[in-house]
Design a protein that fits this description.
alpha/beta, 14 helices, about 15% strand, six-stranded parallel β-sheet
Length: about 400
Amino acid sequence: MSRIICMNLPAFGHVNPHLAVVKALTQSGAEVVFYTHPRFKTRINSSGAEFLPYPVPTQVNMFQQRNIFRMARCLSDFGRKVIPALRAEVAGQQADLIMYDVGCVWGKVVAKELGLPSVASCPILVPDGAAWSYWHRMLPRYLSALWEGKRDLYAFKKNARHFERQYGLEGYSIRSAFHNPADLNLVYTSKLFQPSFERVPENYAFVGPVVDMDRDEEESLPDEINTDQPIVYISLGTVASTDRIPIYQALFKAFHDLPVQLVVSTGGLTDFSSLGTIPANFLLKDHISQLAVLRVASAFVTHGGANSVHEGLLFNLPLLVIPQTFEQTLNALTVHETGTGLYLGSRLPSAEAMRKALQQLLESKTFQKRIHEMKESFLSAGGAEEAARLVHEVIEKGATSKK
C-alpha cells in the first residue's frame, strides 16, 4: 500500500480539488495523510485521508491578502517556520510520495530534502501560458501593489535567500511563491481552456476539473428560491470581506428591476445591514450550496476563482466574471477569450455595463456552443481518476529508480 503525504493551504479553492484526487487515491487503496488548517478536518476525514495539523500554527488569513507581495511574504514566512519541524515529522512517516498544493514551497522543500518523488496540485491556470494581454493589463496593478508592498518584498527576498542557502532552492521569486512545480503537476482544467498550452512544460498533466459532485449532497435549495423564473447565482468567493460591499451595491443598482431572481452567496458576510436597501429580487445567504444553486441557475456572476469558473461551465452556465486578484483576472480573460462568458475589464464595473452584460448572457445563444465544447474538453480529460492513476505512476517510477 502506497503512503502519500499531502500538504495544502487554508483555502477552500485549493483544498477542494486536492481532496477530490485524494478521495480517488484512497479508493484505489492508497494511505493518505493530509496537512492543512484544522477547519478542513471533517472534510479531509470524509475523503478517506487522515488529517494532521501543521507542526506550527497556521493562520486562516495567510492566503487572503489582497496585495500580491504581502501574500508572497506570508507564504514564505510560514514556509521558513514550518519546514524544519515538518521535515522531521514527515521523515518518520515512511512516505512514498509528497503531493502538495503548488503554492506550498514547504512541500517542495520537504520532498527535496527527503529525496521523495513529488506531485503538485495546481488549482490555477499555468502562468507559463499567460498571454501578453494579461501581463499588459496587470502591469499598472502590479506596480501599485509593489509600491504598497515594498517592505513585504524586502522580507520576502530575505526568506528567498534563506531557502537558497539552507535548502539549495534557487530562483525562488514572487512568481514561484505561488507556483512551485513538482516532478508531476496536475492541472485541473483542459488544454482547451489553458492559455497557450503549447508553451507549458511536458510534466504538466491537464486532467480537467475534479469537482466532487457529492460535496454538498446533504444541502438543499433554500425554500425562498423560486425556480419558476430565471435564477442568476452571484458568488464573489468564500471569504467574508467588507471590500466587496461596493460591488454588492453596484449589483443591486444594476439588476434591481430585472425579471430574474438573484441568489447571492455573501461568503460569510452576515451583517447585511451594511449593504443598504436590498432589492426585492435579491436573496442573500451567508452560506449556500453552490452546486445546488448552479443546477437550477441560468447564469453565474463570479469572482473568477478557478473552481467556480469550472463548476459554472460544467453546469452549462455563461459567466460574468468580476475578478479581484491577479489569478482571477487571468481566469476572467480566459473566459472572455474562449467565448464562454464576459469580463468587463474592471474589479468594479459600472452598473450599466453589468446590466447589459447579464442581459446579453441571458438572451444570446452564442455562448452555449463554446460552453458545450469547453465542457466536453473537461469531461474527456480524465478527472480525479486519471489524476490518481498518474500519481501512482510517479510512485512506481520512484520505487523503480531506488532499486
